[in-house]
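Sequence only, no structure available. Ideas?
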Amino acid sequence: MGYFINSPNFNVIQVISSAIEEMNSPTDEQAALIRITLEGRKMSYPDRYQQENLLN
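Reply:
I predicted one. Tokens follow.
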């Protein structure tokens, strides 16, 4: 007796693609930290800890 795997339908592929895209995109807060860092600015403590932690 063999087992067969059904191919996912188009809707499932879209949902999976959306989930993967969101996982690879920074949140708004992360994007702001990245932008500040690329501009050469440093945040004040304790926020600087999050800034450095994100970049590591």
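Helices lie at 10-23, 28-38, 47-55.
Hope that gets you unstuck.
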